[in-house]
Amino acid sequence: MSKKSAVKKRATTLKPFDKYLYYKKSVQSPDTDVEFLRDTYKELRGTDARVMREDFCGTFSICCEWVKLNKNNKAIGVDLDPEPIHYGKNNYQPLLTDEQQSRVKVLEKNVMDASLPKADIISAQNFSYYIFKSREVLKSYFKNAYKTLNNGGLFIVDSFGGSQCQEANEEETEHDGFSYFWDQDKFDPVTNDGLFFIHFKRKGEKKREKVFVYDWRMWSIPEIREIMEEAGFKTTHVYWEGTDKDGEGNGEFSRIKEGEECESWVAYIAGEK
Ligand SMILES: C[S@@+](CC[C@H](N)C(=O)[O-])C[C@H]1O[C@@H](n2cnc3c(N)ncnc32)[C@H](O)[C@@H]1O
After folding, report:
1. Lower Cβ count inside 10 Å, N or C end of the chain?
2. Structure pTM?
3. Which tens digit of pLDDT belongs to each residue from 119-150?
4. 126 CB less than 6 Å from ligand 1?
C-alpha cells in the first residue's frame, strides 16, 4: 500500500470525532482531582466532606469520581449547557453502579442561582470562573458559593498564570494517536483578558481548529483571595503544584505562603466558610 493510501485508510477507519473524549484525555484528571478535594477538606477541617458540588461541571466527571471515593459521598453538578450534561449522562454516568448513580444529581442551572443545593465542598475547576470578567460579577459568584456552602465548608477553585500566559503562543502536546494544542490567541495587558482555543489533530487528519474557545479574564491569586474574603470567606489558602525532574508540573499540590516565579503555573485556592 502506498503511503498516501495508508493515510487515507487510517482516516476512514477512525471513529467519529468526539470532542469530549479528546478533551478528557488532554486536560482532565477527575480521579486525582477528587483525591485533592477529599484530602484538603480533611487537612483543613479535620473531618470528612460528604457532599461535593461541582460548579461549571460540564460532563460532570468529577461528580462521578467523587461518589466512587466513598459510599457515603454525594455529588451535585451544575452547568448551564445541556450538551456536556447529556454527554456525561450517556458516557460517564453509565460507568457507575446503580447505587453510585443514585448519589449523583445534575442540575441544568446557573452557578449564580441562589437556590442551589448546599454542599460541604463547592469546586470550580478548569478555570471556568475566569468567564466572569468584572470584580463585581466575580464577587457575586463567590458570594453565592459562600451562601450555598454548609457551615465549615470549603470553596476550592483552580487558577493558572505565569509569564507565558501574558503573550500569544501555541503549545502542542502529543498523545497516542492525536495532538492537543493549547493556543493563547491574545492577551490584553490593559484588561488582563486572554482569548484561548483548544485545537486537536488526529493522526492522518486535518487539524480541527477552535474546538473549544475561552474568552477569559486572567485573575491573579491575590485578586481571587481578596474577592473571596470580601465575599465572606474567613481564610483562604493557596496550594501550589510541585515539579518533576524535568521542571514540569507533577500534579501534586502543597499549601504554601510564597510561590515561585515561573513561565506557567497552576494553583488551587481554598476559601474556608
Ligand atoms: C471550561 S468548561 C469546564 C467544564 C468542566 N468543569 C471541566 O473541568 O472540564 C466551562 C463550563 O462552564 C459552563 N458555564 C459557563 N457559565 C456558566 C454559568 N453561569 N453557570 C453554570 N455553568 C456555566 C459552560 O457551559 C461549560 O460547560
Report:
1. N
2. 0.94
3. 999 999 999 999 999 999 999 999 999 999 99
4. yes
Which pLDDT band, with edges at 50, 70 and 90, does 113 fall under?
very high
What value does the CA radius of gyration of the chain take, rounded to a whole number of Å?
A: 19
Supply the range of the domain harboring residue 197: 163-216
In this structure, the answer to whether residues 73 and 35 fall within a common structural domain is yes
In angstroms, what is the span from residue 198 Cα to ligand 1's centroid?
15
Q: Is 137 in the pocket of ligand 1 (CB under 6 A)?
A: no
Q: Atom 14 in ligand 1: which residue has the minimum CA distance?
A: 56
Phi/psi at 25 (nearest 5 deg)?
-65, -30
Q: What is the largest CA-CA distance in the chain?
A: 67
Could you report the per-residue pLDDT of 226-262, keeping only the tens digit for each?
999 999 999 999 999 998 888 888 989 999 999 988 8
β-bridge mates for residue 253, sequence order = 241
pLDDT of residue 12: 54
User: In this structure, what CATH number is given to the domain that contains residue 151?
Assistant: 3.40.50.150
Query: Which cell numbers hold the place of 94?
Result: 453509565
**Ligand 1 centroid, distance to 190 Cα (angstroms):** 25
- Is 81 touching ligand 1 by the criterion CB < 6 Å? yes
Cβ neighbours for 44, distance < 8 A, ≥ 6 positions apart: 154, 237, 270, 272
106 Cβ closer than 6 Å to some ligand 1 atom? no
Q: Is the CB of 122 under 6 A from ligand 1?
A: no
Whether 78 lines ligand 1, by a CB cut-off of 6 Å, is: yes
Q: How many angstroms is it from 85 CA to the middle of ligand 1?
A: 10
- Within a domain: 8: no
Q: Which secondary structure element, helix H or strand E, spans residue 122, and what is its range?
A: strand 119-124
134 shares its domain with 246: yes
Q: For ligand 1, is residue 80 a contact (CB within 6 Å)?
A: yes
